[in-house]
Amino acid sequence: MERILFILAILTFSMISLSTNNDILDRQVLVFQSEAIINAVGVAEQILEEISLESFDEETTNSQRVSSAGDLTSVLSLGSDGLEPSDDDIDDYDGRVISFDAGRIPGFQAIIDVAYADTSNPSLDAISPTYAKRVRISITNPDFMTDSLRIERLFTYY
Fold first, then answer.
1. Residue 143 CB coordination number (10 Å)
2. In Å, how far are 4, 14, 15, 88 from 8, measured between CA atoms?
3. Do the beta carbons of residue 70 and residue 64 sit within 8 Å?
4. Digit-coded pLDDT (tens) for 42-85
């Protein structure tokens, strides 16, 4: 009888230990996921800040002015044209994919999308140039984030 009680005590202790280890592991995963999201937001904000320092459009670099939205870069020509020495306007970032590590978490990827925003509903893409461009940054990390993080900012000419 004592042996059975001893074996039951060991089994009970083992079950409690496994449950405790599972709880610790779950908490550690949650900590890494939270850290990944915080890092992703920080990098997205850095990218948006960098973009905000650029001219609104290729046609407005070097303090040039446009008199109508039709004078701006066409919808089909958004993105870097490869002829410029560096990024000098907002839409040069369109289509860019940036891989990075943040803190102690590796394997992030940011995808940048730039589009003209519809003036009546800025969450929609416009079919022709407008005085508003929307920058969307989607950040993923398949190892530490269960879903992608998407941050948008609207930039206007005036």
1. 12
2. 6, 10, 10, 72
3. no
4. 999 999 999 999 999 988 888 888 888 999 999 998 988 666 55
Residue 123 identity (one-letter amino acid) = S
What 3-state DSSP class applies to 27?
helix
| Structure-block tokens of residue 69 | 């939205």
CB atoms within 10 A of CB 41: 14
Least confident range of 26-30, 114-118, 147-151: 26-30
**What is the per-residue pLDDT for 82?**
67
The domain limits of the chain are 2-156
Query: Six-digit token pair at 140?
Result: 């993923």
Percent of the chain having pLDDT more than 90? 55
Rounded distance between C-alpha atoms, residue 133 and residue 115, angstroms:
6
Question: Which two structure tokens, joined as six digits, stand for 136?
Answer: 């969307």
Contact 110, 98 (CB under 8 A): yes
Q: Which residue type sits at 135?
A: V
Q: Which strands sit side by side in the sheet containing 97-102, from one edge to the other?
A: 97-102, 105-116, 132-140, 149-156
pLDDT, tens only, 72-131: 999 998 988 666 556 789 999 999 999 999 888 999 999 999 999 998 999 999 999 999
